[in-house]
Automatic annotation (TrEMBL):
It is a multi-pass membrane protein. The chain crosses the membrane at residues 6-23, 30-52, 58-79. Its main location: membrane. InterPro entries: Transgly_assoc. Keywords: Cell membrane, Membrane, Transmembrane, Transmembrane helix. This is GlsB/YeaQ/YmgE family stress response membrane protein. It holds the Pfam family Transgly_assoc. Belongs to the UPF0410 family.
Length: 83
């Protein structure tokens, strides 16, 4: 049983908010939710390629979303710094 759509939004928002504080960015609530959800999805896909699967529970998905959001922020900064 997964965390559901509402749970994914809550966990994504929390993960994005924590990531924005760690990475020192000034993003809004919708950007935080997006960063957390997209970060969690992308990192879950990448981890799945290596046979690693995060449990469908709040804490593992929060950790995956947090790390994924931090990686997205880092990648965005690396790409925008080149331009």
């Amino acid at each position: 049983m997964g965390i559901g759509i509402i749970g994914a939004i809550i966990v994504g928002g929390l993960a994005g908010w924590i990531a924005s504080m760690i990475m020192n960015t000034n993003t809004g609530i919708f950007a935080n939710i997006g960063l957390g959800i997209v970060g969690a999805v992308l990192l879950n896909l990448i981890l799945g390629l290596f046979g690693i699967y995060a449990a469908n529970a709040w804490i593992p998905q929060l950790i995956v979303g947090l790390v994924g959001a931090c990686l997205l922020i880092w990648a965005w900064r690396a790409i925008s710094a080149r331009s």
